Amino acid sequence: MKSDKELQINVLDELTWEPSVNVEDIGVTVKDGVVTLTGSVDSYAEKSAAEQAAKRVTGVKALAVEIQVKLPGMSERTDADIGRAAENAIEWATWVPEDRIQVTVEQGWITLSGDVDWRYQKEAAENAVRYLTGVKGVSNLIDIITVQKVSPAEVKANIEKALKRNARLEAQRITVTATGSKVTLRGNVRSLADREEAERAAWNAPGVLEVDDEIDIAA
């Protein structure tokens, strides 16, 4: 197990290694394996990049992101401008179903609502707007619906196969339980990024409407 000091150094090193992040703007504290990121950055894109960088570090058990987005004057946009840009971006996004996503903007914060058939479509909608100039944050409230009927046994088998195919994951450390359209993941992985990868694999299985991720982080 890494000490809190070792984790802090590792996270700072990873933030320094990430070219889209200015590490001088970000503070890192660690207590009992829980990492907190503080400070202020010029864009929501940089905040997201810092979050993903910290998640890649082995041994980080949980992550609290308290980074503030403070846009420089040239990046300020009205909510109406951001809303129009977000609607256009979603309209042009290949994987987002047409006419099913609603966009609202308040003080630079985008809220997405509506429904899609797959998790990757929900993520695609968020990715389409997160890098727009003027955005301070994104709340993704899009629901996932499906008409596909797949037996729990088939869902479980499909996810287990997907985990075994994934080069990043040690599939034997993860157990899968399927009940109806709900999947529960248990076990342990080495990083928060690996945990997200396992969860993504579960969401990709036909028939899944809910994923309960109970995977622990164990270096």
Question: Helix and strand layout, with pairings?
Answer:
Layout: H1 4-17, E1 26-31, E2 34-41, H2 44-55, E3 62-65, E4 68-69, H3 79-92, E5 101-106, E6 109-116, H4 119-130, E7 137-140, E8 143-144, H5 152-165, E9 174-179, E10 182-189, H6 192-203, E11 210-213, E12 216-217
Parallel strand pairs: 2-3, 2-4, 6-7, 6-8, 10-11, 10-12
Antiparallel strand pairs: 1-2, 5-6, 9-10
Commentary on this structure:
With 219 residues, the chain is an alpha/beta fold. The protein folds into 3 domains: 4-69, Histidine-containing Protein, Chain: A, CATH 3.30.1340; 77-144, Histidine-containing Protein, Chain: A; 152-217, Histidine-containing Protein, Chain: A (2-Layer Sandwich), CATH 3.30.1340. Helix content is 36%, strand content 27%. The chain contains 6 helices and 12 strands. The strands form 3 sheets. Strands 1, 2, 3 and 4 form a 4-stranded mixed sheet that branches. Strands 5, 6, 7 and 8 form a 4-stranded mixed sheet that branches. Strands 9, 10, 11 and 12 form a 4-stranded mixed sheet that branches. Helix 3 packs across helix 4 (119-130). The model has no long low-confidence stretch (mean pLDDT 94).
